[in-house]
Amino acid sequence: MADAERMLSQAADMCEDGDFVGALKIYSKILKKNPTNTDALIDKGVALQNLGRLRQALRCFQKALAVDTKNITALVNTGSVLHSLGMFDEAIKCYDRALRIDKKCAMALAYKGLSLGEKGKIKDALKNFKKALSIDKDYDIALISKDIAQKILKENFTQK
Length: 160
Prior knowledge:
Layout lengths: L1 H15 L3 H14 L4 H13 L3 H14 L4 H13 L3 H14 L4 H13 L3 H14 L4 H20 L1
Helix pairs in contact: 1-2, 2-3, 3-4, 3-5, 4-5, 5-6, 5-7, 6-7, 7-8, 7-9, 8-9
């Protein structure tokens, strides 16, 4: 098992350096030996997502969830891919599942806010960004998105 951890660390370093293709080779080796390694499945999904291979990334996250239905990282990443595919309602369902497991998951709250914003539900989005910031006051996605949502609401109010 220590070998898999070492390989995961090596692949993570490659991802940090932007070598997602190289990292994918390592994740595939790990998964060949242990197809239910959730860390490798999730990290492979993230690498695929960074390469724009969204459907393949989604399959990795779904496999991780088949192994561990309560894996918050897999749920949030599944939502992120679904959001990227324009499937905002499905993404929101993933974030809600993650929030049922951990209601203080700032990432799930912020990402849910992004999907709600895409659906035009700016007030609901803003609530989620604020909740995320109450948990992590420096969470950049929530900070930036909250400011944008507030500007949109202000513009909509002044146009009426």
